[in-house]
Design goal:
Chain lengths: 94, 410
Protein backbone atom coordinates (compact mmCIF):
# COMPACT_ATOMS: atom_id res chain seq x y z
CA UNK A 1 0.00 0.00 0.00
CA UNK A 2 1.64 3.29 -1.01
CA UNK A 3 1.83 5.60 2.01
CA UNK A 4 3.88 8.64 3.03
CA UNK A 5 5.97 8.96 6.17
CA UNK A 6 6.54 12.53 7.34
CA UNK A 7 9.96 13.06 8.86
CA UNK A 8 10.61 15.63 11.62
CA UNK A 9 13.56 17.97 11.13
CA UNK A 10 15.60 16.18 13.79
CA UNK A 11 15.51 12.96 11.73
CA UNK A 12 16.22 14.47 8.34
CA UNK A 13 19.96 14.22 8.84
CA UNK A 14 19.38 10.48 8.44
CA UNK A 15 17.09 10.76 5.40
CA UNK A 16 19.38 12.87 3.22
CA UNK A 17 17.28 15.89 4.18
CA UNK A 18 14.03 14.43 2.88
CA UNK A 19 10.96 15.74 4.78
CA UNK A 20 8.80 12.91 3.45
CA UNK A 21 9.50 9.34 2.50
CA UNK A 22 7.14 7.34 0.29
CA UNK A 23 6.96 3.63 0.88
CA UNK A 24 4.73 0.65 0.38
CA UNK A 25 3.46 -1.11 3.47
CA UNK A 26 0.38 -2.87 4.81
CA UNK A 27 0.92 -1.94 8.46
CA UNK A 28 2.66 0.71 10.54
CA UNK A 29 5.30 -1.85 11.53
CA UNK A 30 6.05 -2.58 7.89
CA UNK A 31 6.26 1.11 7.09
CA UNK A 32 8.72 1.77 9.89
CA UNK A 33 10.76 -1.27 8.93
CA UNK A 34 10.96 -0.10 5.33
CA UNK A 35 11.98 3.36 6.50
CA UNK A 36 14.75 2.09 8.74
CA UNK A 37 15.91 -0.43 6.15
CA UNK A 38 16.31 2.34 3.63
CA UNK A 39 17.99 4.61 6.19
CA UNK A 40 19.74 2.24 8.62
CA UNK A 41 21.26 5.01 10.76
CA UNK A 42 17.72 6.04 11.65
CA UNK A 43 16.93 2.64 13.16
CA UNK A 44 18.27 3.17 16.65
CA UNK A 45 16.51 6.52 16.88
CA UNK A 46 13.14 4.97 16.09
CA UNK A 47 13.36 1.79 18.19
CA UNK A 48 15.00 1.07 21.52
CA UNK A 49 17.19 -1.91 22.40
CA UNK A 50 14.11 -4.07 22.93
CA UNK A 51 12.82 -3.23 19.48
CA UNK A 52 9.97 -1.09 20.78
CA UNK A 53 9.19 2.32 19.35
CA UNK A 54 11.06 4.75 21.56
CA UNK A 55 9.03 5.95 24.50
CA UNK A 56 9.25 9.62 23.55
CA UNK A 57 8.55 9.18 19.84
CA UNK A 58 4.88 9.41 18.95
CA UNK A 59 3.62 7.80 15.77
CA UNK A 60 0.38 8.98 14.21
CA UNK A 61 -1.67 7.49 11.40
CA UNK A 62 -3.24 10.53 9.82
CA UNK A 63 -4.81 12.29 12.84
CA UNK A 64 -4.69 9.48 15.37
CA UNK A 65 -2.03 8.19 17.74
CA UNK A 66 -1.41 4.57 16.76
CA UNK A 67 -1.76 3.50 20.40
CA UNK A 68 -5.49 4.13 19.99
CA UNK A 69 -5.51 2.06 16.78
CA UNK A 70 -3.99 -1.13 18.06
CA UNK A 71 -0.36 -0.10 17.81
CA UNK A 72 2.07 -1.03 15.08
CA UNK A 73 -0.12 -3.74 13.66
CA UNK A 74 -2.82 -1.34 12.49
CA UNK A 75 -3.52 -1.52 8.78
CA UNK A 76 -2.68 1.12 6.23
CA UNK A 77 -4.63 2.11 3.17
CA UNK A 78 -3.50 3.87 0.06
CA UNK A 79 -2.59 7.50 0.61
CA UNK A 80 -2.29 7.29 4.39
CA UNK A 81 0.09 9.69 6.15
CA UNK A 82 2.31 8.39 8.91
CA UNK A 83 3.68 11.12 11.17
CA UNK A 84 6.68 10.81 13.46
CA UNK A 85 6.48 13.50 16.14
CA UNK A 86 8.66 13.92 19.20
CA UNK A 87 6.73 13.70 22.43
CA UNK A 88 6.73 17.17 23.92
CA UNK A 89 6.61 16.83 27.66
CA UNK A 90 3.11 18.01 28.51
CA UNK A 91 3.48 18.28 32.22
CA UNK A 92 0.82 18.93 34.73
CA UNK A 93 -1.61 21.76 34.26
CA UNK A 94 -1.05 23.53 31.00
CA UNK B 1 24.67 36.61 35.43
CA UNK B 2 27.22 33.83 35.02
CA UNK B 3 25.84 30.96 32.91
CA UNK B 4 26.53 27.65 34.62
CA UNK B 5 23.95 25.41 33.04
CA UNK B 6 23.18 23.62 29.80
CA UNK B 7 20.68 21.18 28.37
CA UNK B 8 21.12 17.50 29.04
CA UNK B 9 19.10 14.49 27.90
CA UNK B 10 17.17 12.91 30.75
CA UNK B 11 17.74 9.44 29.34
CA UNK B 12 21.06 9.19 27.48
CA UNK B 13 22.66 12.14 29.36
CA UNK B 14 24.08 13.71 26.19
CA UNK B 15 24.59 17.47 26.58
CA UNK B 16 23.48 20.00 23.98
CA UNK B 17 24.61 23.40 25.24
CA UNK B 18 21.90 26.06 25.36
CA UNK B 19 19.57 25.90 22.38
CA UNK B 20 15.81 26.28 21.82
CA UNK B 21 15.02 22.58 21.77
CA UNK B 22 13.03 20.29 24.03
CA UNK B 23 14.17 16.83 23.01
CA UNK B 24 17.37 14.91 22.45
CA UNK B 25 18.00 14.47 18.76
CA UNK B 26 19.58 11.09 19.44
CA UNK B 27 16.89 9.36 21.49
CA UNK B 28 13.98 11.86 21.42
CA UNK B 29 13.84 11.92 25.22
CA UNK B 30 13.16 15.26 26.93
CA UNK B 31 16.01 17.64 27.62
CA UNK B 32 16.45 19.17 31.03
CA UNK B 33 18.54 22.05 32.32
CA UNK B 34 21.55 20.67 34.19
CA UNK B 35 23.50 22.94 36.51
CA UNK B 36 27.08 23.01 37.68
CA UNK B 37 26.27 23.01 41.39
CA UNK B 38 29.89 23.49 42.45
CA UNK B 39 30.04 26.82 40.66
CA UNK B 40 26.53 27.64 41.89
CA UNK B 41 27.70 27.25 45.47
CA UNK B 42 30.26 29.99 44.84
CA UNK B 43 27.77 32.55 43.60
CA UNK B 44 24.58 31.66 45.46
CA UNK B 45 23.88 31.50 49.17
CA UNK B 46 20.98 31.61 51.60
CA UNK B 47 22.32 34.89 52.93
CA UNK B 48 21.87 36.52 49.53
CA UNK B 49 18.16 35.79 49.67
CA UNK B 50 17.76 38.00 52.71
CA UNK B 51 16.62 41.43 51.65
CA UNK B 52 15.29 40.32 48.30
CA UNK B 53 11.59 40.67 47.61
CA UNK B 54 9.56 37.50 48.12
CA UNK B 55 8.89 36.52 44.51
CA UNK B 56 10.41 34.01 42.11
CA UNK B 57 13.30 36.28 41.07
CA UNK B 58 14.61 35.82 44.59
CA UNK B 59 16.02 32.52 43.30
CA UNK B 60 17.57 33.89 40.11
CA UNK B 61 20.87 32.08 40.55
CA UNK B 62 18.99 28.77 40.56
CA UNK B 63 17.17 29.49 37.30
CA UNK B 64 18.39 29.28 33.68
CA UNK B 65 18.55 33.00 33.03
CA UNK B 66 20.81 34.61 30.40
CA UNK B 67 23.86 36.63 31.38
CA UNK B 68 22.27 39.97 30.50
CA UNK B 69 18.99 39.18 32.22
CA UNK B 70 17.30 42.10 33.92
CA UNK B 71 14.51 41.31 36.35
CA UNK B 72 11.05 42.13 34.98
CA UNK B 73 7.90 42.47 37.07
CA UNK B 74 7.38 40.34 40.15
CA UNK B 75 6.02 36.83 39.59
CA UNK B 76 5.20 34.25 42.26
CA UNK B 77 5.68 34.88 45.95
CA UNK B 78 2.30 33.36 46.73
CA UNK B 79 0.96 32.55 50.19
CA UNK B 80 1.22 29.21 51.95
CA UNK B 81 -2.12 29.02 53.71
CA UNK B 82 -2.44 27.06 56.96
CA UNK B 83 -5.71 25.16 56.58
CA UNK B 84 -6.81 24.72 60.18
CA UNK B 85 -10.45 23.93 59.50
CA UNK B 86 -9.81 21.32 56.86
CA UNK B 87 -6.95 19.83 58.89
CA UNK B 88 -9.35 19.38 61.78
CA UNK B 89 -12.07 17.97 59.54
CA UNK B 90 -9.69 15.48 57.94
CA UNK B 91 -7.80 14.61 61.14
CA UNK B 92 -4.43 15.97 60.04
CA UNK B 93 -1.94 17.70 62.29
CA UNK B 94 -0.58 20.12 59.71
CA UNK B 95 -2.19 20.93 56.38
CA UNK B 96 -1.23 23.75 54.04
CA UNK B 97 -2.31 24.99 50.65
CA UNK B 98 0.29 26.64 48.43
CA UNK B 99 -1.99 29.12 46.76
CA UNK B 100 -0.88 29.94 43.24
CA UNK B 101 -4.46 30.92 42.45
CA UNK B 102 -3.22 34.42 43.33
CA UNK B 103 0.00 34.30 41.32
CA UNK B 104 0.80 37.51 39.45
CA UNK B 105 0.03 38.50 36.70
CA UNK B 106 -2.51 35.94 35.43
CA UNK B 107 -3.62 33.97 38.51
CA UNK B 108 -2.03 30.57 38.01
CA UNK B 109 1.31 28.87 38.56
CA UNK B 110 1.89 29.12 34.81
CA UNK B 111 3.12 32.66 35.41
CA UNK B 112 6.26 31.12 36.88
CA UNK B 113 7.14 28.94 33.90
CA UNK B 114 6.37 31.63 31.36
CA UNK B 115 8.68 34.00 33.22
CA UNK B 116 11.71 31.74 32.69
CA UNK B 117 10.59 30.81 29.17
CA UNK B 118 10.42 34.42 28.03
CA UNK B 119 13.88 35.06 29.44
CA UNK B 120 15.03 32.23 27.16
CA UNK B 121 12.99 33.60 24.25
CA UNK B 122 14.83 36.90 24.51
CA UNK B 123 18.13 35.11 24.78
CA UNK B 124 17.42 33.22 21.53
CA UNK B 125 16.18 36.39 19.80
CA UNK B 126 12.61 35.24 19.21
CA UNK B 127 10.16 38.04 18.56
CA UNK B 128 7.07 35.84 18.53
CA UNK B 129 6.23 33.57 21.44
CA UNK B 130 3.38 31.14 21.89
CA UNK B 131 2.24 27.88 23.39
CA UNK B 132 -0.15 24.99 23.25
CA UNK B 133 -2.47 25.48 26.14
CA UNK B 134 -5.53 24.36 28.03
CA UNK B 135 -6.01 27.94 29.19
CA UNK B 136 -3.84 29.01 32.07
CA UNK B 137 -0.65 28.90 30.05
CA UNK B 138 -2.24 30.94 27.28
CA UNK B 139 -3.25 33.54 29.88
CA UNK B 140 0.27 33.71 31.25
CA UNK B 141 1.96 33.89 27.84
CA UNK B 142 -0.41 36.60 26.65
CA UNK B 143 0.01 38.70 29.79
CA UNK B 144 3.78 38.55 29.99
CA UNK B 145 4.26 38.90 26.22
CA UNK B 146 2.25 42.12 26.47
CA UNK B 147 4.42 43.30 29.37
CA UNK B 148 7.66 42.52 27.58
CA UNK B 149 6.83 43.45 24.00
CA UNK B 150 6.67 40.04 22.32
CA UNK B 151 4.07 39.11 19.71
CA UNK B 152 2.01 36.25 21.06
CA UNK B 153 0.24 33.41 19.24
CA UNK B 154 -1.40 30.72 21.33
CA UNK B 155 -3.00 27.43 20.29
CA UNK B 156 -5.95 26.10 22.30
CA UNK B 157 -8.59 23.38 22.04
CA UNK B 158 -11.73 24.96 20.60
CA UNK B 159 -13.89 24.01 23.59
CA UNK B 160 -11.94 25.85 26.31
CA UNK B 161 -13.70 27.61 29.15
CA UNK B 162 -14.83 31.07 27.92
CA UNK B 163 -13.14 32.82 30.84
CA UNK B 164 -9.78 31.39 29.89
CA UNK B 165 -10.18 32.44 26.26
CA UNK B 166 -11.19 35.95 27.29
CA UNK B 167 -8.29 36.14 29.73
CA UNK B 168 -5.96 35.55 26.80
CA UNK B 169 -7.67 37.75 24.24
CA UNK B 170 -7.69 40.80 26.48
CA UNK B 171 -3.90 41.06 26.31
CA UNK B 172 -3.94 41.21 22.52
CA UNK B 173 -2.62 37.72 21.79
CA UNK B 174 -3.52 35.91 18.59
CA UNK B 175 -5.64 32.89 19.50
CA UNK B 176 -5.74 29.84 17.23
CA UNK B 177 -8.60 27.50 18.17
CA UNK B 178 -8.06 23.89 17.18
CA UNK B 179 -10.78 21.33 16.61
CA UNK B 180 -9.41 18.63 18.88
CA UNK B 181 -8.22 17.97 22.40
CA UNK B 182 -5.03 19.20 24.03
CA UNK B 183 -3.02 16.29 22.69
CA UNK B 184 -3.96 17.29 19.15
CA UNK B 185 -2.98 20.88 19.89
CA UNK B 186 0.30 19.77 21.38
CA UNK B 187 1.13 17.65 18.35
CA UNK B 188 0.41 20.54 16.02
CA UNK B 189 2.64 22.81 18.08
CA UNK B 190 5.49 20.31 17.86
CA UNK B 191 5.17 20.62 14.09
CA UNK B 192 4.83 24.42 14.23
CA UNK B 193 8.01 24.65 16.29
CA UNK B 194 9.70 22.48 13.68
CA UNK B 195 8.62 24.83 10.87
CA UNK B 196 8.53 28.36 12.30
CA UNK B 197 11.16 30.42 14.08
CA UNK B 198 8.94 31.03 17.08
CA UNK B 199 9.57 30.55 20.75
CA UNK B 200 6.83 28.16 21.84
CA UNK B 201 7.27 28.19 25.56
CA UNK B 202 6.20 24.62 26.29
CA UNK B 203 7.62 23.16 23.10
CA UNK B 204 11.04 24.31 21.92
CA UNK B 205 11.63 26.42 25.06
CA UNK B 206 10.28 23.72 27.35
CA UNK B 207 13.49 22.92 29.29
CA UNK B 208 13.81 26.58 30.34
CA UNK B 209 10.08 26.95 30.85
CA UNK B 210 9.72 24.00 33.18
CA UNK B 211 12.51 25.28 35.43
CA UNK B 212 10.19 28.08 36.52
CA UNK B 213 8.09 25.47 38.34
CA UNK B 214 10.93 24.96 40.77
CA UNK B 215 10.17 28.32 42.37
CA UNK B 216 6.86 26.88 43.62
CA UNK B 217 9.00 24.36 45.52
CA UNK B 218 11.64 26.87 46.67
CA UNK B 219 8.93 29.03 48.16
CA UNK B 220 7.35 26.09 49.98
CA UNK B 221 10.78 25.19 51.35
CA UNK B 222 11.26 28.73 52.65
CA UNK B 223 7.76 29.01 54.01
CA UNK B 224 7.71 25.60 55.64
CA UNK B 225 10.16 22.97 56.85
CA UNK B 226 9.63 20.03 56.76
CA UNK B 227 7.26 19.53 53.89
CA UNK B 228 5.37 17.14 51.65
CA UNK B 229 4.01 18.08 48.26
CA UNK B 230 1.49 16.87 45.72
CA UNK B 231 1.81 18.27 42.22
CA UNK B 232 4.30 19.73 39.72
CA UNK B 233 6.04 16.70 40.95
CA UNK B 234 9.30 16.37 39.13
CA UNK B 235 10.23 20.04 39.33
CA UNK B 236 9.32 20.47 42.98
CA UNK B 237 11.40 17.37 43.69
CA UNK B 238 14.27 18.91 41.74
CA UNK B 239 13.90 22.16 43.68
CA UNK B 240 14.12 20.31 46.99
CA UNK B 241 17.11 18.25 45.83
CA UNK B 242 18.91 21.40 44.73
CA UNK B 243 18.40 23.10 48.08
CA UNK B 244 19.87 20.05 49.79
CA UNK B 245 22.78 19.89 47.30
CA UNK B 246 23.57 23.53 47.97
CA UNK B 247 23.45 22.86 51.70
CA UNK B 248 20.63 25.34 52.26
CA UNK B 249 18.25 22.88 53.90
CA UNK B 250 18.62 19.60 55.76
CA UNK B 251 17.64 16.52 53.78
CA UNK B 252 14.14 15.37 54.75
CA UNK B 253 12.07 12.46 53.54
CA UNK B 254 9.41 13.90 51.28
CA UNK B 255 6.77 11.74 49.67
CA UNK B 256 5.15 12.93 46.46
CA UNK B 257 1.54 12.21 45.57
CA UNK B 258 0.05 12.73 42.14
CA UNK B 259 -3.50 13.91 41.53
CA UNK B 260 -5.51 13.52 38.35
CA UNK B 261 -9.10 13.60 37.22
CA UNK B 262 -10.53 10.14 36.64
CA UNK B 263 -11.62 11.26 33.17
CA UNK B 264 -7.99 11.79 32.23
CA UNK B 265 -5.73 9.79 34.48
CA UNK B 266 -2.94 8.08 32.53
CA UNK B 267 -0.37 8.73 35.26
CA UNK B 268 -2.44 7.73 38.28
CA UNK B 269 -3.68 4.70 36.34
CA UNK B 270 -0.07 3.77 35.57
CA UNK B 271 0.96 4.12 39.21
CA UNK B 272 -2.03 2.21 40.56
CA UNK B 273 -1.62 -0.64 38.07
CA UNK B 274 2.17 -0.57 38.39
CA UNK B 275 2.64 -0.20 34.64
CA UNK B 276 6.10 0.22 33.12
CA UNK B 277 4.66 2.68 30.60
CA UNK B 278 1.44 4.59 31.09
CA UNK B 279 -1.33 4.07 28.58
CA UNK B 280 -2.57 7.24 26.82
CA UNK B 281 -6.22 8.16 27.27
CA UNK B 282 -8.85 10.24 25.52
CA UNK B 283 -9.62 13.02 28.02
CA UNK B 284 -13.17 13.46 29.27
CA UNK B 285 -13.30 15.61 32.38
CA UNK B 286 -14.32 19.06 33.57
CA UNK B 287 -10.71 19.51 34.71
CA UNK B 288 -9.68 20.65 31.27
CA UNK B 289 -6.43 22.19 32.46
CA UNK B 290 -5.35 18.65 33.38
CA UNK B 291 -6.81 17.00 30.31
CA UNK B 292 -3.63 15.70 28.76
CA UNK B 293 -4.08 12.14 27.67
CA UNK B 294 -0.51 11.59 26.55
CA UNK B 295 1.72 13.46 29.02
CA UNK B 296 5.36 13.11 28.02
CA UNK B 297 6.42 13.94 31.58
CA UNK B 298 4.34 10.97 32.70
CA UNK B 299 7.20 8.46 32.95
CA UNK B 300 9.20 10.86 35.11
CA UNK B 301 6.24 11.69 37.32
CA UNK B 302 5.54 7.98 37.84
CA UNK B 303 9.18 7.38 38.69
CA UNK B 304 9.26 10.29 41.14
CA UNK B 305 6.10 9.15 42.87
CA UNK B 306 7.32 5.56 43.19
CA UNK B 307 10.82 6.44 44.35
CA UNK B 308 9.53 8.78 47.03
CA UNK B 309 7.15 6.20 48.46
CA UNK B 310 4.13 8.22 47.40
CA UNK B 311 1.09 7.26 45.40
CA UNK B 312 -1.28 8.64 42.80
CA UNK B 313 -5.05 8.88 42.82
CA UNK B 314 -7.82 10.41 40.78
CA UNK B 315 -11.24 11.86 41.43
CA UNK B 316 -14.45 12.01 39.42
CA UNK B 317 -16.00 15.21 38.13
CA UNK B 318 -18.62 15.33 40.95
CA UNK B 319 -15.81 14.83 43.46
CA UNK B 320 -13.89 17.71 41.87
CA UNK B 321 -16.89 20.03 42.20
CA UNK B 322 -17.44 18.96 45.80
CA UNK B 323 -13.78 19.60 46.60
CA UNK B 324 -13.85 23.08 45.05
CA UNK B 325 -16.83 23.94 47.24
CA UNK B 326 -15.26 22.38 50.32
CA UNK B 327 -12.02 24.36 49.95
CA UNK B 328 -13.93 27.60 49.43
CA UNK B 329 -16.33 27.02 52.32
CA UNK B 330 -13.66 25.99 54.82
CA UNK B 331 -10.54 27.92 53.87
CA UNK B 332 -11.79 30.76 51.71
CA UNK B 333 -9.77 29.67 48.68
CA UNK B 334 -11.58 29.62 45.35
CA UNK B 335 -9.68 27.32 43.04
CA UNK B 336 -10.25 26.18 39.51
CA UNK B 337 -10.96 22.56 38.67
CA UNK B 338 -7.28 21.55 38.93
CA UNK B 339 -7.28 22.63 42.58
CA UNK B 340 -10.47 20.65 43.06
CA UNK B 341 -8.52 17.65 41.83
CA UNK B 342 -5.63 18.09 44.27
CA UNK B 343 -8.00 18.80 47.15
CA UNK B 344 -10.29 15.89 46.32
CA UNK B 345 -7.38 13.51 45.91
CA UNK B 346 -5.95 14.66 49.25
CA UNK B 347 -9.23 13.75 50.90
CA UNK B 348 -9.19 10.36 49.19
CA UNK B 349 -5.57 9.65 50.17
CA UNK B 350 -6.37 10.46 53.80
CA UNK B 351 -9.31 8.07 53.70
CA UNK B 352 -7.01 5.39 52.27
CA UNK B 353 -4.49 5.97 55.05
CA UNK B 354 -1.78 6.93 52.56
CA UNK B 355 -1.49 10.45 53.99
CA UNK B 356 -0.65 10.13 57.65
CA UNK B 357 -2.21 12.37 60.30
CA UNK B 358 1.04 13.21 62.12
CA UNK B 359 2.89 14.32 58.98
CA UNK B 360 2.83 17.72 57.36
CA UNK B 361 1.00 17.88 54.06
CA UNK B 362 1.15 20.61 51.42
CA UNK B 363 -1.48 20.68 48.68
CA UNK B 364 -0.72 22.64 45.52
CA UNK B 365 -3.39 25.00 44.24
CA UNK B 366 -2.33 25.95 40.74
CA UNK B 367 -5.09 28.16 39.36
CA UNK B 368 -7.96 30.48 40.16
CA UNK B 369 -11.63 29.53 40.37
CA UNK B 370 -12.72 32.60 38.44
CA UNK B 371 -11.42 30.91 35.30
CA UNK B 372 -13.61 27.81 35.49
CA UNK B 373 -16.88 29.13 36.85
CA UNK B 374 -18.81 27.12 34.27
CA UNK B 375 -17.75 23.93 36.05
CA UNK B 376 -19.63 24.82 39.22
CA UNK B 377 -22.24 27.34 38.05
CA UNK B 378 -25.02 24.75 38.21
CA UNK B 379 -24.36 24.35 41.93
CA UNK B 380 -25.40 27.93 42.56
CA UNK B 381 -28.63 28.79 40.74
CA UNK B 382 -29.52 32.46 40.99
CA UNK B 383 -32.21 33.28 43.54
CA UNK B 384 -35.35 35.24 42.91
CA UNK B 385 -35.01 39.00 43.40
CA UNK B 386 -37.11 40.67 46.10
CA UNK B 387 -38.59 44.13 46.45
CA UNK B 388 -36.47 46.70 48.38
CA UNK B 389 -38.81 46.58 51.38
CA UNK B 390 -38.24 45.23 54.90
CA UNK B 391 -41.43 43.16 54.76
CA UNK B 392 -40.19 41.52 51.57
CA UNK B 393 -36.89 40.70 53.23
CA UNK B 394 -38.64 39.23 56.26
CA UNK B 395 -40.83 37.14 54.00
CA UNK B 396 -37.71 36.02 52.18
CA UNK B 397 -36.02 35.03 55.43
CA UNK B 398 -39.10 33.14 56.55
CA UNK B 399 -39.19 31.27 53.27
CA UNK B 400 -35.48 30.50 53.41
CA UNK B 401 -34.97 29.82 57.09
CA UNK B 402 -38.40 29.19 58.52
CA UNK B 403 -38.55 29.61 62.26
CA UNK B 404 -34.90 30.66 62.37
CA UNK B 405 -35.92 33.95 60.85
CA UNK B 406 -38.14 34.77 63.77
CA UNK B 407 -35.34 34.34 66.28
CA UNK B 408 -33.05 36.53 64.14
CA UNK B 409 -35.44 39.46 64.46
CA UNK B 410 -34.62 42.01 67.15
Amino acid sequence: MPVTIEIPTAFRRFTDGAPKVDCSAATIAEALNELTSRFPDLGRHVRDDQGQIRQFLNVYLNEEDIRFLGGESCSLKEGDRVLLVPSIAGGSTC
Amino acid sequence: MFVNYELRCRECQKTWGNVPRSFCEDCFSPLEVAYDYDSLKKIASREKLVGRAFNMWRYSELLPLPEDFSVPNAVGGTPLVAAHKLASKWGLKNLYFKNDAVCFPSLSFKDRVVATALAAARRFNFTTVGCSSTGNLANAVAAQAAQQGFDACVFIPADLEPAKVLNTAVYGARIVRINGNYDHVNRLCAQVADRFQWGLVNVNLRPYYSEGSKTHGYEIAEQLVPMAGGSLITKIAKAFRELVTLGWVEPKAVRFFGAQATGCSPISDGVKRNLARFEPQKPNTIARSLAIGNPADGPFAMKQIRQSGGWAEDVSDPEIVAAIKLLAETEGIFTETAGGVTTGVTQKLIAQGRLRPHETTVVCITGNGLKTTDAIAAEFPSTEAIAPRLEAFEAYLDAQLGTAAASAKA
